[in-house]
Structure formats: C-alpha cells, structure tokens
Amino acid sequence: MTFLHLVVTSLLEVQIDQKTYNSMPYLTSAIFNESHGFGRPEMYKSALVGSVDHYERHLFLCYKDPSSWPAKVEAADYDPLPHSLVTALKTRRSEMLVKTRLTIIEEDQQKDPETSRGDVLLFPDMVKYKGLIESDMDSFVEEVLVAGKELPLRSPGPLVGSHVFICAHASRDMRCGFCGPLLKQRFSQEITKLGLDGKVFVHLCSHIGGHKYAGSVIIFSSKSENEPVTGDWYGYVTPDDVPELLEQHIGQGKVIEKLWRGQMGVEKTAQKELQQQRMGPANEDCDTCACASASWKE
C-alpha cells in the first residue's frame, strides 16, 4: 500500500465530509472513488432484487444536514427532535395501522425554501406536516399513524411531483457519504436540463439499509395522476444512471430492472415475482438473469 493510500485510509476512518473531499487533489479523490465510490470492487457483486424489507408507509423527518448526523441519528439522545419521534413510534408500534419506516432527510432551505426543520413527509400518502417540534410527536403518532386522522390544528399540505431520496449518511458508512452528494448533484443538473424543476425533488437522507448497494436511491412517483404512488428502491446507482432514472422511471413509469432492489408495500419474495412478470416469460428463471446475479456490468 502506498503512502497516499495510507493517508486516504486514515481520512476515511474519521469520516471526512463532502466539502473536504471536494478540496482534495484529483489523485486522492480517485483513490476515494476506488475504495468507497462508484469504482469500488464490490460494485455489482450482490443481487439486488428482493433486498428491501417489507413496509407500507415511509416517514421522512427534516432535521439538520448529513454532515451533522451521528451514526444513529434516530436514536441519539442529544438530538431531541428525531429521538422524540423514534420513542413515540416504538411505544405505539403494535397499534399503528401499517408497518412504518422512518428516515431523516436534510433541511435545505437555501435550495428548497418549502422545507424546514421538523417537517414530516409521508408516503404513499403524499402529504407533509410542517414544523413539528418534540412536544408534537406523541400526538402525531397517536392521531395520524394510529388513529388514521389528521393532527389537530395542523392540517397537512399536499406533496406534489416525484421525490427522490439518496442515502448520504457518511458517519454510518462512507460509501453512501461519498456517493450520495455526487448523485444529488447529477440529479439536480439533469432536472434543470430536462425542465423538471418544481416537478422532481431530490433529498439527501440517512441510512436506509444496504450500504453495500451505494449509491442507494428511493423514488416515489406514479405512472399517471390516476395511479397510486410507488416507492421503488434502486442500488448501485451511478451518476451515469441518473438520466435514465429521470427519463424512464419518472418520465415513463418504467422500472430500471438492472438497478431495481424492490418496492415499498411488496414482500421480498413477491419483489422477485413482480420483476419476473415485468420481464416476461423469457426471464422466468430470475436466479440467472442479469439483475438478480448483478453480473451485468462485470
């Protein structure tokens, strides 16, 4: 191992942030890409489809930014806002109408003035509660998630368009910390290029499971106004895949099979069956198809 590799490895151990990475010389950043980025050896080595645990509703809580999140931001006692929501969720878990997942997302008022700390986004409900504080969380879980009502005196606003969530939780795993911001940058560029500003929204988020699949992306969108919103998970996403995700998945409602991990509301075994149905009889043996073996880019 060269001296430069040793330096980079040491930096990774202290979880550098994206700003630090951007200031590095080209050779150093290239080593990062090979060890934790899109050029790392493990890319495309694991099967993707069927790797999403079953759940039926996704909550996203806006709280600070990825560089400030501890490894387990949802459980950190010194981060009272996410901690109070997690505590309320755990207390009433058995009473909730559907199995619910919580993820933290960045608050980025400079780029998205409609988003602020304490906002809670619900999918597939496509609604947002604005500016919840610690004392609201018990009532939110009781009224909205258990009773299926609206939070008193805090009617939700509608969410419009398609929403893309990208794991960038560097303190949990540097692979996502490396890949996430670069993916968001490419998404933002392509959204503007395609005239999709105000129609497609991109958020950096905390750990969603499966860091080995970084870049990890979830897309909430519908094929048409009359169809329900789906939450599709993608793995091994690189910046070069972004145009296809925008044009094919969001634009035409076509799943990108080679990157697809699964879908909210679908059991693991059913995820494989669903993909087989989409791909047709010629691909019924999904154990040997490219998307299952993840060997399509080797």
From TrEMBL:
Transmembrane segments: none
InterPro entries in the record: Aim32/Apd1-like (IPR009737), Thioredoxin-like_sf (IPR036249)
PANTHER family xref list: ACTIN PATCHES DISTAL PROTEIN 1
Listed name of the protein: Sucrase/ferredoxin-like protein
